[in-house]
């Protein structure tokens, strides 16, 4: 199934204007019109060519004369009948092509889902060793635990140990067929065989990706994971994405449309919320420059699972990533201007040199994220979980917004000098001076619970 036998839809000629009008009208209407044209043609012959009608009796008695006249008059009706036959044949060919495409798509779906993979069969045999001879013995033994012997055997296919040529096992062949089927889904997803296949193909592909990563994602849900265990799981996600099956799924999911101008998945914006692309690497050789650069910009990706994803230098401006999972994501030098990251999990994310200007990071989790040289100018950091030790060396915090609670709990303990008193010990006036000093040093803005800017005072910040 490497190549499809039928020509894709984009190779078919579009019907001209006359054919469109004929196709849109009912058969009865077209036949009536053709009949009227034939009558008009007969009238024109009688009116303007009377010599043809008033020929000698000898000519009029000729069969050829009448045959010619009948053919001439019936040309409109004959053309209509020919059109109907041609249209009927064309529809039959089209239906046959659709049936073939549908059967192939169904077969590919089975192979992609792994329905053809040989299963490991477990056989359990249980036998009761007791021999009960009488009712009295039965009554007595009912009060005792019954002994059972259980035997378990496994049946599975494996590569023959002695062959005259190199080969592979049935399991390996089934996996190779599964990977090949993923590649063969590309023309269906791109729309080469009609729009009706695109949505089912996309559903199948994104479900296959999630199924591939599901075991690793479940491990991440465990509580109290050590840093080493967490890193191992993220590495596992990224390793699966680099496997032959992961590369095949990446190639098709991040393929371009028929015009080679944008990702095919952009044609399904309603299906992108909560999508799982965990561990996907946008920098594999099979991914186009367009997909790497701005393939996901301005998309609604709320709730998406991008844990461990590699998006170095990607332009994600305008995206809605509210509630998305980006922990462990590599967003080195990514453009995240004006992006909605409300409540997004960015734990341990790599945001070195990232552009986060005007980004909404309220309630986001930036703990342990690498923010070296990241531009957080005018970013909303209210109620965001972050550590000052990750921000203190960042010189691009101008007009970044925090709450007074953020300053007291997340910044002041690490920002204050060693001999400075605790926050609670400071008087109201000293607290104001401390916040003002911090704002002058960093350019950040502090707001109270109601959302009113308190430091620096609004009038002072305008001057």
UniProtKB/TrEMBL annotation:
<dbReference type="InterPro" id="IPR051082">
    <property type="entry name" value="Pentapeptide-BTB/POZ_domain"/>
</dbReference>
<dbReference type="InterPro" id="IPR001646">
    <property type="entry name" value="5peptide_repeat"/>
</dbReference>
<feature type="transmembrane region" description="Helical">
    <location>
        <begin position="65"/>
        <end position="84"/>
    </location>
</feature>
<protein>
    <submittedName>
        <fullName>Pentapeptide repeat-containing protein</fullName>
    </submittedName>
</protein>
<keyword id="KW-0812">Transmembrane</keyword>
<dbReference type="Pfam" id="PF13599">
    <property type="entry name" value="Pentapeptide_4"/>
</dbReference>
<keyword id="KW-0472">Membrane</keyword>
<feature type="transmembrane region" description="Helical">
    <location>
        <begin position="21"/>
        <end position="45"/>
    </location>
</feature>
<keyword id="KW-1133">Transmembrane helix</keyword>
């Amino acid at each position: 199934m490497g190549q499809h036998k039928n020509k894709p839809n984009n190779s078919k000629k579009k019907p001209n204007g006359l054919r469109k009008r004929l196709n849109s009208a009912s058969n009865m209407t077209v036949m009536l019109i053709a009949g009227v044209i034939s009558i008009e043609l007969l009238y024109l012959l009688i009116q303007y060519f009377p010599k043809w009608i008033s020929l000698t009796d000898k000519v009029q008695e000729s069969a050829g004369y009448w045959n010619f006249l009948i053919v001439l008059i019936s040309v409109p009706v004959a053309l209509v009948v020919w059109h109907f036959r041609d249209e009927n044949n064309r529809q039959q060919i089209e239906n046959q092509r659709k049936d073939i495409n549908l059967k192939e798509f169904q077969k590919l779906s089975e192979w992609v889902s792994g329905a053809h993979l040989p299963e490991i069969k477990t056989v359990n045999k249980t036998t009761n060793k007791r021999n009960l001879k009488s009712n009295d013995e039965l009554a007595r033994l009912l009060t005792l635990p019954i002994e059972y012997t259980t035997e378990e055997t496994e049946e599975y296919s494996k590569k023959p140990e002695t062959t005259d040529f190199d080969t592979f096992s049935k399991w390996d062949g089934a996996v190779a067929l599964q990977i090949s089927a993923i590649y063969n889904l590309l023309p269906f997803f791109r729309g080469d065989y009609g729009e009706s296949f695109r949505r089912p193909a996309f559903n199948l592909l994104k479900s296959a990706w999630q199924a591939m990563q599901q075991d690793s994602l479940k491990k991440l849900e465990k509580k109290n994971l050590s840093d080493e265990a967490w890193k191992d799981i993220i590495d596992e996600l990224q390793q699966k994405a680099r496997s032959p099956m992961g590369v095949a799924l990446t190639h098709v999911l991040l393929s371009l449309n028929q015009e080679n101008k944008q990702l095919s998945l952009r044609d399904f914006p309603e299906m992108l919320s909560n999508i799982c692309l965990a561990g996907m690497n946008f920098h594999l050789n099979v991914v186009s420059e367009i997909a790497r650069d701005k393939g996901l910009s301005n998309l609604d990706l709320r709730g998406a699972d991008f844990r461990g994803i590699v998006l170095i230098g990607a332009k994600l401006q305008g995206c809605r990533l509210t509630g998305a999972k980006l922990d462990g994501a590599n967003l080195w030098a990514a453009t995240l201007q004006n992006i909605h990251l409300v409540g997004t999990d960015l734990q341990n994310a790599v945001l070195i040199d990232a552009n986060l200007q005007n980004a909404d990071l309220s309630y986001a989790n930036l703990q342990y994220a690498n923010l070296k040289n990241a531009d957080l100018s005018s970013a909303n950091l209210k109620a965001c979980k972050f550590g000052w030790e990750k921000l203190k060396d960042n010189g691009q915090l101008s007009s970044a917004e925090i709450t007074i609670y953020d300053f007291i709990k997340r910044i002041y303990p690490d920002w204050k000098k060693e001999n400075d008193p605790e926050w609670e010990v400071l008087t109201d006036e000293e607290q104001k001076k401390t916040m003002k000093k911090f704002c002058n040093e960093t350019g950040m803005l502090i707001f109270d619970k109601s959302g009113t800017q308190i430091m620096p005072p609004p009038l002072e910040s305008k001057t």
